[in-house]
Amino acid sequence: MRTIILKSASSYLLPVLLLFSVFILLRGHYLPGGGFVGGLVASIAFVLDSFSNGLDKTKSVLKIHPGFLMPFGLAIAFLSGISPILFSDLPLMTGIWAEDPIPVIGAIGSALFFDLGVYLVVIGASLTIIFTISESV
Amino acid sequence: MLGAVLLGFLFSLFLVFAGSYFRGKLAVLSSLVPLSLFIYFLTFLPEIADGKVIYENYEWIPSFGVNLSFTLDGLALLFALMITGVGSLVFLYTSAYLKDHKYLDRFYGYLSMFMAAMLGLVLSDNIMSLFIFWELTSISSFYLIGFNNDKADSRKSALTALGITGIGGLLLLGGAVLLGEVAGTYRISEMVMMRDVITDSSHYLLILLLIFGAAFTKSAQFPFHFWLPGAMKAPTPVSTYLHSATMVKAGVYLLFRMTPILNGDEIWHTILIVVGAVTMVYSAIHIIFRTDLKGILAYSTISALGILVFLIGIGTQAALVAAAVFIVVHALYKASLFLITGIIDHETGTRDVTQLSGLRKVLLPVAIAGFIAALISGGVPPTLGFVGKDLIYEATLHFKDAAIFLTVLAILTKILLFYGGFVAGVKPFMGKLPQKFEKLHLPSPLMWMPPLIMTLAGIVFGIFPGLIETAFAKPIAMTQVIEFEEFHLKLWHGFNSVLGLSAITITLGAILYFTLKPKHNLENAIAKLDKIAPKDLTLKLSEGFAEFSRLWTNFFQTGYLRHYISTIVLFLILLLGYLIFSDFSLSIDYSSLTELTVYEISILLMLLMGVLYTVFTKSRLAAVAALGVVGLSFSLLFLFYSAPDLAMTQFSVDTLTVILFVLVLYKLPKYLKLSDTGVRIKHGVLSISFGILITLLILKVLNEPKNTEISEFYAENAYTLAHGKNIVNVILVDFRGIDTMIEISVLIVAALGVFGLLKLRLKTRDKK
């Protein structure tokens, strides 16, 4: 499937799709989107890249094995979950929010970090599954 | 009291870390644990003797009525003192018996865990905590029986014992729950007051059978007795402690505890008397055929347990007092005999009674202990055994029906027990000392002192039976008997019929001992009957069950994904089909439905074509692509019905699924006949009927009134509570965030599973 058209297109598509996935992640709290879909879009971006440039190339772009994103994401989600207990003496999973929104990103709160954790776990898990299978067949 | 129960557990936990210090000379120090507990419980003696009952309550799971409530009355104190008292001696004995054993610390760990569980069992006032401690005793006994885990025999015996007592535990749980529901309380002391409610309830018989099942398995009653002789594979201290003095009496304890609650109907008496009598006579007769010292003791223990069950079945005050006294008697002489057997085994290396003789010349203190133990066991005055035996005859003679028959059975059992006690306690020490044993010398006092102490206690209690009376017999009679009458324990009752029966028993027992010698050919003769013994029948049953489960598993676990899916779908079809057609009324309100629009129709057509193409194409890749079309059409549908989040997710997931399929299928041959027509028709019928059922189900759901309460709550509070306007996302990351957390964990597990499965296989393939 290594055609020249797909190859040149994917080198532009990868960064655009990744940016798009972050955009979806960030807008999730107000508009359709969120960590899960964002993560899926990001992993589709990498899969597309691996189709056109080969798996080894994509892996070298990623630098680390996608599997490592999973514990990292889970830790972020967990920490954001217990942050109300640690910082504000509130029950588990209570949302805490910064007073003023930050430009570009918008309102910052524990829910955003939780979503970020979901985003990373989804990328990690789906890429691990797909890469492992494509290496094995 | 909580501390007293936990001490054993804490000590065994402590041994996990500090065990290496307790393997050598310090091992003897571990007996301080049961000894301190023994002294602690002794301090309660005056209060209990006054007829007081001490309660302590710690909340554990109050919402289920499961609490750690402890009670100390005469019965509990009797068992607690027996557990800690015999425990102290066994702990001492072990330090010499298993001296320098590699895993001595481990042994002590199991032993103190068992002791703590046993204490918890007898002190529990809550039937649920009683059940938990009951199970803990089974589990710790499993480790103790299988202590020599390098021997296949030990492992098998441990498993048998765990199996039988485990079934009993399950029955106890059933009985406990039922009892708690009927009585409205899980506290045993409160159940006593609900006695009439329980005995009149329609579940009474079931409760009775469940509790009996638990007690009979634990206390090795016929036909569940066979695990006990097998359990003798354990090191002698275990046989002494668990299988004669304490654990096997847990079932008797349970029956004792339940006497004031369940003892209402004729059936209680009938079952207990019959089972107890069969057990005591059956296993007493078995004694004659045994030549292994431990085998003799095992069967005489079962017989003694039978006597106890039998007495509880009689249930009069005299019988219960007799049972309480006999518990003490039995603990004293049987534990001593076991310890003595252990010494003989340890020194001579054999337990075969036909080879042992004349050991008194080398092991004199042991011989004295053995002789006294035999006297107690035979009920010869002035030992406590005599008092106990008289009480038993007293109880049977005054039972309302069949007094003569029951008395004859009791006498027969007692004669055989007399014989068993003398064969185990006296015979090895009498006669001529064989040459090979001349070099033996007396072991450490740590080994021969414990049996001597216990047997001497048997004589002291025999001469002063008032000690037992005030300490245990009266408090027990006061709490366990409904109409308490004053009584006194005496060694000498004057000349009466009971004394005559005693004399007959002792004379016949002595005649039996001097005429009948244990022989191997007798043992071989009875082995021929093993085929119809409960043990072999049970083993066959369990083998049959294993075979059945193997067939069952092979039938369902074919390893083909399509079979699994067919089974699941078929099951759902049957279940849903039954549900829908047993109560089906469908009325569709056509007026509420909107007109179909053009784009809806076109999406439906796309869907349909995708499905048909998937089914009929011959190319795998084409089928996958067509399946993708189906998925994408669905996400379009979601979009039209204003669920953009769902549509996005469906879209991405479908893309990834198609990619996955392509990755796998790309390498397979392109065109192939995948299945024959018959299979296709079968699958087609399954799929179509499943589809129809699901459609009917959805239409049915539409009929139900809509419950919008929850979605309204989310819509109202999404922004105020969670700063979000997208309700779906707010639910995911905030309202039900913990669900999401668990879901992403599941995702990780799935990914790791795929990674592990495939990478592991790659590696083994590389090796080849």
Tally of extended strands of chain B?
A: 2
Poorly predicted runs of chain B are none
Strand-and-helix sequence of chain A, N→C? HHHHH
Percentage of β-strand residues of chain B:
under 5%
What composes the largest sheet of chain B? 2 strands, antiparallel
Q: Which two protein chains have the largest interface (Cβ within 8 Å of the partner's Cβ), and how many residues from each? A: A-B, 49 and 43 residues
State the major sheet of chain A: none
State the helical fraction of chain B.
over 70%
| Radius of gyration of CA atoms of chain B, rounded to a whole number | 35 Å
What structural class do you assign from the helix and strand content of chain B?
Answer: mainly alpha
Described by its quaternary structure, the protein is: heterodimer
Domain MrpA C-terminal/MbhE (chain B): 680-759
Membrane topology (chain B): Multi-pass membrane protein
Domain MrpA C-terminal/MbhD (chain B): 605-670
Transmembrane segments (chain B): 28-49, 70-95, 107-123, 159-183, 204-228, 267-289, 296-314, 320-341, 362-382, 402-426, 446-468, 494-516, 560-581, 596-616, 621-641, 647-669, 681-702, 740-758
Please give a structural write-up.
The complex is a heterodimer of chains A (137) and B (768). Chain A is mainly alpha-helical. In chain A, 72% of the residues lie in helices and 0% in strands. The longest helix of chain A is centred in the last third of the chain and has 27 residues. Chain A is elongated and about 55 Å long. The model of chain A has no long low-confidence stretch (mean pLDDT 84). Chain B has a two-stranded antiparallel sheet with strand order 1-2. Chain B is elongated. The relative contact order of chain B is 0.06. The mean pLDDT of chain B is 84. The interface between A and B is large, with 49 and 43 residues.
